[in-house]
Amino acid sequence: MTWRPGGIDAAVEQWRLVPDGELIVTPSSRLLPVTHHGRPAMLKVPLVHEEALGGQLLAAWDGAGCAAVFAGDDHAIVLERATGGRDLASLTRAGDDLGAVAILCSVLDTLHAAIPTPAPTDAGDVIAELPTLRRWFRELLADDASALGTLLGDPASAAFLERGRELAGRLLDTTMPADVVVLHGDLHHLNVLEFAPGDWRAIDPKGIVGHRAFDATALFSNPDPATARNPRLFAERVGLVSRSLGLSRTELLEWVVARSALSAVWSLQDGLLDDARATVEVGRLAEDGLR
């Protein structure tokens, strides 16, 4: 059966929600602050199937390292609403980016351990629907991907995309089963919120199955270009992440290169040349660290 989006009014009635704020509309979801049996909550109605799968993954994680799900079905979910008022970018702005990165690593550890391998029966259906990391990289692995680098008017950037394409293929081909977990897919400073003082948890998972190191790569491009492209801070982040997650510097940096090339291709496909250039710069920092 073809998946179709649900409706805000139907979900409010179904779960007896009380609206508690203005409707928020994004390209992929509609969100409405509500209360659910007196608890602050957020009604999320996905507009695309990928977002619906992310909601089902949150339910499977059952509040371990992420927002709890109070109610839900294939078309909408009612999420615990963060009331701490901060995301991890606030720590970076306050001068404690390494503190933010340490929290990101702690959240990742919790998420990666939340669903055992193989997945239990109640989570198995969700996991079976999640894309693999190889599928996630399909735009970069396409034969014409590196040609997009010519749009930047910089031969070095086109060469970086080709190196990233080759490296991504090798990393995917050599991934060991022991390193495969259910990935958040987009864990960075803006996707970890303070639900209560000191209680930092993730929101908005993409949901992918693949090498655990991939989940440690999105943070390197965040929360802003100036932070991401600071060579000293980049090196400090690499050291902290590799120690915290038990990854070698080499495997972490290689996945950052691959992720940067993939993100640059996505940006080029969307006509976002400045974003692509910024992402390539992060990837080159990772390449410098591999030398």
| Assembly category | single chain
The total strand number stands at 10
Helix/sheet category: alpha+beta
If you compute it from the alpha carbons, what radius of gyration comes out, rounded to the nearest whole angstrom? 19 Å
Can you name the CATH architecture of the largest domain? Alpha-Beta Complex
N-to-C order of helices and strands: HEEEEHEEHHHHHHEEEEHHHH
How large a portion of the residues is in β-strands, by DSSP E?
A: 15-25%
Number of helices: 12
* Dominant shape: globular
Outline the fold blueprint:
Blueprint (H helix, E strand, L loop, with lengths): L7 H7 L3 E2 L4 E2 L3 E8 L2 E8 L2 H13 L7 E4 L4 E4 L8 H5 L3 H18 L6 H9 L3 H4 L1 H4 L13 H19 L6 E4 L8 E5 L2 E4 L5 E4 L13 H4 L2 H15 L3 H21 L3 H18 L1
Antiparallel strand pairs: 1-3, 2-3, 3-4, 4-6, 5-6, 7-10, 8-9
Written overview of the protein:
This protein has helices at 8-14, 49-61, 89-93, 97-114, 121-129, 133-136, 138-141, 155-173, 225-228, 231-245, 249-269, 273-290, and strands spanning 18-19, 24-25, 29-36, 39-46, 69-72, 77-80, 180-183, 192-196, 199-202, 208-211. By secondary structure, it is an alpha+beta fold. It folds into two domains: 8-80, Phosphorylase Kinase, domain 1; 89-290, Alpha-Beta Complex (Aminoglycoside 3'-phosphotransferase, Chain: A, domain 2). The strands form three sheets. Strands 1, 2, 3, 4, 5 and 6 form a six-stranded antiparallel β-sheet that branches. It is globular and about 55 Å long. The termini are far apart.
